[in-house]
Amino acid sequence: MDYVGRMFRPPSEAHSFLLQVTIGCSHNRCVYCDMYRDKQFRPKPMDTILADIDEAAELCKKTGPQFRRVFLCDGDALILPSKKLLPILEAIRTKLPWVERVGTYGDTRSIGRKSVAELTTLREAGLGIVYHGMESGDEAVLERIDKGGTREESIASAAKLREAGIAHSVMVLLGVGGEDLSKQHAANTAATLSQMDPTYVGALTTTVVPGTPLAQMESSGSFRLPSKFRMLEELREIVAGVELSDCRFSANHASNYLPVRCTLPRDKAAVLEALDKVITDRDERRLKPESLRAL
Ligand code: SF4
Prior knowledge:
With 295 residues, the protein is α/β, with parallel strands linked by helices. It is 40% helix and 17% strand. Helix 9 (228-241) packs antiparallel against helix 10 (268-281).
């Protein structure tokens, strides 16, 4: 397989075939992110991508299918124009016919550039889910972290994906508003998620990674990460405030201090009760130790 640099994928794509179709992230400016800082964004040559699909098909001919899903890497493969994505999806369908779902990262830019008709064509060709790192529903926070998209654009993206029949998994980042914007980050994230009403929401916890602009902001005093318990309070405020019709909500990423996995609204009362207990007791032994956390 032709893999360039470090590879990243959402936790739920752990057993997927990772097919690298772009290198890096076309935005590459979010202040907390160091995933692709060492990579200059560029699409990979089609020949290389198709050779990787052939290699996976050959391997599976010998061993039987080793995966049911394919995840298109790197940071925002959906930024590729449909005329490049469609032959990739068609090759997956032809050469790996047992694949049940293709997923990718996408954001307000890559979804915004495509019409509902284009997204529908991509879904018909096999694209089943888009993972969208929205991080916050608060405009001031989005601007501070240089997310490159607005709250309204996230809401519009959700509507387009829904109309096209593509599942939408939205990630939010506890603590990313810092201490000063913590309250409005939680309240506006809950309000924005309610308007988006996605099928999946994942809440991750901010880690200040050395060498990132966020680390520089922390050194200069313009950003202060909220305490662990304040970040759990943010999670509680989001769960309490959000109104979703039927959503798998998880906060069980490696970065989180307390794993939560539930269906909302069904489990809302039980989750709030569990969070209240931990927040009230302030018992650090209930939280994941720093040494076991990861990005
Ligand atoms: S869009 Fe995603 S991959 Fe790109 S810089 Fe932001 S967080 Fe990192």
